[in-house]
Amino acid sequence: MTKATAGRPTEYDQKFNSLVEGMFRGGVTDNEVIKALGVARSTFYLWKQEHEEFAAAVRAGKDAFDNGRMEESLKSKAAGFYVLEEVMTEEDAEGKLLKKVTRRKQMPPDTAALKYWLGNRQPGRWREQPEEVPAEREPLEIHVTVSKPVSDEVPEEYLIEDEGQETD
Fold first, then answer.
1. Residue 2 covered by a domain
2. How would you class 44 by CB atoms within 10 Å of its CB: exposed for 0-12, middle for 13-18, buried for 19 or more?
3. Which of 48, 68, 88 finishes a domain?
4. Best exposed site among 20, 52, 58, 146 by fewest CB in 10 Å?
C-alpha cells in the first residue's frame, strides 16, 4: 500500500475488507487503520459510505472486539481477578537484587465497573434513575382490611407532656 498524496482518493480494493475487519477485531482505532492503509481520513470515511461491504467489515471487527475482549475485561474488573506479579525479594550487601519470585496477586472488584455492569444488565434494579413508568399504565389500587377497630384514643404511654403546661 502506498502513502496517499494530496488529490484524488486512493483506489478502493476489496482486499481491504478482511484486513480492516481483522485489525478492528484486534482493538485498533480508526486512526491506526487509516495509517496502515496509507490513505487520508476523508478517503476512509468515503469508502465506508460508498462501499457497504467495507462498512460492514469495519462494523463486524469493532463489534467482535467490543462484544468479546472488552466485555470480558469489564466482567473481570467487576468480579475481581488474579494477576501474576514478579517481585524481587532479596538483596545482597550492595543492594543488588538477587531473587525474583512470581506470586499470584488478587485484584479486588471495582465498584464503578460493578455499578456499570449491573446498571446495564439489570436496569430495573440497579439504575440510579429507574425508567419512568409509561403514562398508559393503570394506577395500582391497594385495599386494606383492618381486623381490629382503630381507636381515636392515644394510649397514655404515648402522650408527651409539655414542660411548663399543666395537664389534667
1. no
2. buried
3. 68
4. 146
Residues 91 and 63 in one domain: no
Q: Mind listing the pLDDT tens digit for each residue in 3-49?
A: 555 556 578 999 999 999 999 999 999 999 999 999 999 999 999 99
**Coil, strand or helix at 127:** coil
Using the 8-state DSSP alphabet, how is residue 137 labeled? S
Nearest to 45 by CA among 3, 10, 15, 6: 10
Do residues 60 and 98 share a domain?
no
| pLDDT of 134 | 64
- Residues 57 and 91 grouped into a single domain: no
CA pair distance 76, 68, nearest whole angstrom:
12
pLDDT of residue 94: 82
74, 115 contact by CB (below 8 A): no
Q: Can you give the residue range of the structural domain that contains 102?
A: 80-128
**Has residue 154 been placed in a domain?**
no
- The phi-psi region of residue 38 (left if phi > 0; otherwise alpha if psi is between -120 and 50; otherwise beta) is left
